[in-house]
Amino acid sequence: MSERVVLAYSGGLDTSVAIPFLAEKMDAEVIAVAVDLGQGGEDMDVIRKRALDCGAAESVVVDAKEEFAADFCVPALRANALYMDRYPLVSSLSRPLIVRHLVAAAERFGGTVVSHGCTGKGNDQVRFEAGLAALAPGLRVVAPARDFAWTRDKAIEFAEDKGLPIETTKSNPFSIDQNLWGRAIETGFLEDIWNGPTEDVYAYTADPAAPREPDEVVITFDQGVPVALDGRPLTPYQVIDELNRRAGAQGVGRVDLVEDRLVGIKSREVYEAPGAVALITAHMELENVTVERDLARFKRGVDQRWSELVYDGLWFSPLKDALDAFVADAQKHVSGDVRMTLHGGRATVTGRRSGQSLYDFSLATYDTGDSFDQSLARGFVQLFSLPAKIAAARDARHG
Predict the structure, then answer these.
(1) Residues 124, 213 within the same domain
(2) Is 91 annotated as a binding residue?
């Protein structure tokens, strides 16, 4: 009986080429697994049929949109996850969910090998294989693009020689990964970091400079989870999907970044994540209103470490699990509404309200009704600055 290889299938160049390549190289039956993460674009049934046309023995499509939103995007939102303070973890979030379904497919079809289309230069090889090591350490991994040193031009040539039904050609050289949380674009002329992105690079966002009327939206959170837009109860998937459209129409969420990859190189990446950027902006502001100062200060460090762990492919790690517990506890009071104006490429907070608010108008106001006892301030300042005063006196004594 031929070996069975379960392939993470996207419908793009690398994974389409991998099907006939693995079948020939390993004398294997290839089970293609495509996961619908709300990426839009092509119909998933077209992708399923393409895998069969490329030679797959079985082709499976998993509808994981709601699962992705609730179990992966929401935790990232509650952790304000931005790698290098800018990247909203578009690809990083999807890989552990795909791994979860690859393992399930291997169990269902009797697969002994798992394969992906990642190269040796990228982060995704680590994300896939670290996840597999945690969930199914008995499965072998083969990465044809990495293990057999494909180059992109050779993969395109192989696809053309085999007559594979894929869209990527020499005239369309971009590598694109997209899901509900955003879209990542690389390669082609973008590899020259002096070249600016052209408008045809973008699909989730409109030109921010184009004239249009602003869009005002009210986002409701319950313990850090988005539950409504403009008073309409929605699932997290529905919230993100609608904000992708509305914020995207205003050009919100474009990121052009030279980032530090896990493998040690710097890489130019262009992202567009309109819903993610709008939601993180709103969530951060609601935390400003509802989270106590020292907890908020400490959480900023936790958020950064959480983002690094997920970027590095350690979703299924003990530290990530522990940080999840901290973040969940820190979200107990993050409930309320945030009003935003979406316009000109920006998501601007214009109002916030919460039954859990720590903002006290009578303490904050400078007008009549001020309840802050300013007579206490002099002694507070003296005691607060005392250590610095003593240290300065010592330094003066010793020159």
Answers:
(1) no
(2) no
Residues 6 or more apart whose Cβ sits within 8 Å of residue 213 = none
175 is in an annotated binding site: yes
Among 120, 145, 172, residue at a domain's last position: 172
- Lowest-pLDDT range of 36-40, 179-183, 241-245: 36-40
| Closest-CA residue to 176 (of 149, 197, 157, 206) | 197
Helix, coil or strand: residue 192? coil
Element (H or E) spanning 228, and its range? strand 225-229
Question: Is residue 127 annotated as involved in ligand binding?
Answer: yes
Active-site choice (14, 241, 303, 312): 14
| Selected catalytic residue, list 36, 50, 59, 124 | 124
**Is residue 171 part of an annotated ligand binding site?**
no
Tell me the C-alpha distance between 34 and 52, whole Å. Answer: 12
- Provide the phi-psi class of 299: left if phi over 0, else alpha when psi is between -120 and 50, else beta: alpha
Instruction: Please give the residue that has the higher pLDDT: either 392 or 154.
Output: 392
Q: Write down the pLDDT at residue 168.
A: 54
First to last CA, the chain: 84
305 annotated to bind ligand: no
- The per-residue pLDDT for range 161-198, each reduced to its tens digit, is 777 877 655 556 688 899 999 999 998 899 999 999 99
Q: Which of 78, 95, 268, 352 is catalytic?
A: 95
* Digit-coded pLDDT (tens) for 187-238: 889 999 999 999 999 999 999 999 999 999 999 999 999 999 999 999 999 9
Tell me which of 172, 187, 213 is where a domain ends. 172
53, 71, 152, 175: the catalytic one is: 175
The total number of structural domains in the chain stands at 3
Domain range holding 63? 3-172
Model's pTM, two decimal places?
Answer: 0.93
Query: What single letter denotes the amino acid at residue 266?
Result: K
Per the annotation, the verdict on 175 as an active-site residue is: yes
